[in-house]
Structure formats: structure tokens, C-alpha cells
Amino acid sequence: MRPALIVAAILMLAGCSPSDPAPTPTTTSSRPTYELSPRTARPDETPLKLPAKQDGETEFVLVGITPKLPSLTGSHIDFDAKGVFYRIRVAATNTGRTNVDFDTRKQLLVTQDGATHVPDDPAMTVKRQPDQFVLGANVRLEFDLYYDIPKDAQPKALKVFGGKTLTDQDDATGTDIPLT
């Protein structure tokens, strides 16, 4: 077979020709985006429209916040907050190529007075939310974080920790995501 015929056959099999234009990007960043269906916010939840923030190889998007819940209802129990509960809906995505050991109990709610609050263990258990898990490569997981904070405290930010990385083996740095 002649070289010109071989080249023509390869181009036909590849489904393109030397004169085909390059594909047009579908977004301004030249990378296409997923079109996800909108979901209805839960009662008393305020959707958050904040930019994604990266900590290590984990990307965080705060989806919604439910403020000042006086009590929670689980499948087998109702119980009151010592102060008030705040529920924050979080989507975490591992943008790396390896697994990330993720701990929801490390995610801190920061209030205006500078105090930090850990997720409330009984609330997380009653509402059946995860505590520690492996976030696989390119895996996205949504979950709720529940905090029991004083009634007069005002949340300012969520300090997120995305798991150990080569540059932060202790996962001690974290990234603040302002709630406004």
C-alpha cells in the first residue's frame, strides 16, 4: 500500500481530517462542566452560593446552612441542643490521584468571637452522618455537619481539613471558607 493511502486510511479511521477545526470549549475555562439538576433545599435551609475552596487535594463546596435548630429528630430519638444546632451541607471532592483519609470531626465551625467548634458527636450519630471514611480518587461525597453552639454565637467560617498530603502530613493547616 502506498504511504499516502495509509495516511488517508488512518485519518478516516480516526474520524477526522487535517482540515477539521479544533473542538470549541463549552466554558470560559476551556474545560466542560457537568450540568447537574437543581435540588430543592430542605425546610429552613438556606442554599449557599460560595466558590469552591481547595485544601490539599480535597475541594469543598458548602451547599447549604440551616441555622438555630433548637432540637433534632432522629429515627429513634429526639433531643435538644445545649445551645442551638447549625447544620452545614458540604460536598467534598478528592481532586487527587490517590485516596484521602477524611475525618468529618476535624471540620471546625468558627464563630465571630474566634472560637472553634467541632461537629457534635451525638447529633452526627443521630442524623446518621459519616465520621471517618476514605475518599477515593475523583470521588465526590455530600454530607451534613452538625454543630451545637451557644445561642448568642454567630458562625463566621468553616475551617476545612482535606486529609493528609505530601506537604501537610499532619493535616494541620486547614482552609477557612467564609459563610457569607
TrEMBL record:
Entry-linked InterPro entries: DUF4352
Signal peptide: 1-22
Transmembrane segments: none
Biased composition (Basic and acidic residues): 41-51
PROSITE patterns: PROKAR_LIPOPROTEIN (PS51257)
UniProt xrefs under Pfam families: DUF4352
Key word Signal present: yes
Domain of life per record: Bacteria
Keywords: Signal
Domain DUF4352 intervals: 55-162
Presence of keyword Signal: yes
Chain positions covered by the region annotation Disordered: 17-51
UniProt name for this protein: DUF4352 domain-containing protein
Organism: Kibdelosporangium banguiense
